[in-house]
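We modelled the chain as a single entity of 459 amino acids. Its sequence is:
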Amino acid sequence: MITDGESLLAAVSGGADSMCMLDLFIRYAAEHNLRLGVVHVDHGFRAESASEAEYVESICRERSIPFYLRRIEPGSISHAEEAARDKRYKLINEVADENGYAKVALAHNARDRAETVLFNMFRGSGISGMTGIRPVREMYIRPILCLDRDEIEDYLSEKGIAYCTDVTNLGDDYARNRIRHHVISEAEAVNAGSVRHMNDLADDAEEICLFLRELASEACEKLVTHDEDMREYRIAAAGFKELRPFVRVEILREIIMRMTPHLKDITRDHILSIDGLAGRETNGRVDLPYGIRAYREYDHISITSASASPARETEAQPEIDDLRDIGDVTNILLDNGSMMTLSLISAADAGDMSGLKSADKYTKRFDYDKIDKPVGIRSRRTGDRIVIDEDGHEKKLSRYMIESKIPERLRDSIPLLTSGSSVIWIIGYRDSCAYRIDETSRRILEVTVKNKLKGENDG
């Protein structure tokens, strides 16, 4: 959890658990050259919260321990348990970052972990939820997770250490309180060691999860790709279906975890709904919390976040009809953030015609004299067509997109280079054969798009 000479910020509420943890760390710091600081968050929900802050501060002052008080402005958050927790973590993180603490210690005990295991199980969690509260998670450590509440109170009594009691923990207003007061107490009536057994189960679940992550990581290398911003993931459906269910679930959980701050509202049913897309013969969609959507699209499953949603369909951008002279250049910022550059060059000056014809995925060259209407950039419209061969045969743009397996959700967001109602280039995919360069070409329109655009160049 921590090594000699490290810096540690202990989150201390003044309750029994945190006072026990603080006393243990005071003893530990003296022997292991530990730079210890204390942060206290005053939620302001109770009249006695100010005196609790003063008590913790006095303990730190007596021992020359740096003390950081953070107060939550009354009315700035709801009294909901989750809202208070999120705000508390945010303030603690700020203190740690501002003052250079490498680790943050939280005073959860064995009973807290057992409650979390039950809470997750009741909400519909998978095997990962059975790990409950983890002893170590990134910069957070929980050094008294191995202690039950009775052991903590016995220690405080033996050492003569006073602590505060949060009266809100005595009622049944919160789900965790009801689990603590009723479910756990009934479990202990069945078996006095039930809390310890649930912690043992959580340890076993953690080991299982580590093993599953290893298997899932190996499978991801073969089956999963993502965009540059890691806001859209694609899973090869055929290979995914061949995996064991637990491995598939772990892959999905890992992907979603990268898109969300936590998995609190992602239930087992959500994960299984995405998993079910792999077995579909037709396209489908699953909506999840936090703006996440999963799609079955042809031979793959796509999982996207709200920030990866396709751009809205827009009206045509201004048409370009002023590229009359060799050397003319026009730059256009597309709706998706990419930059398009159009320039007019002379075929005679360019030299070898074969070199002019070759271009990469996002650079195309066209015979400018074959374009009889102003050039425009827009999204697709009903009736759009593209010439697909040298004999002039046309295909409806909608049919081409279906046959090319372009996901329906992306079709309206793909920019088109057009001449009137004729499509010159489906940007990122293919160009029209009607405007390609040949031996008679004199003026060449070169179009380059810089930045990422989804698609495959098949033309």
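As a brief sanity check on the tokenised model: Residues 23 and 161 are 9 Å apart (CA to CA). The first strand starts at residue 7 and ends at 11.
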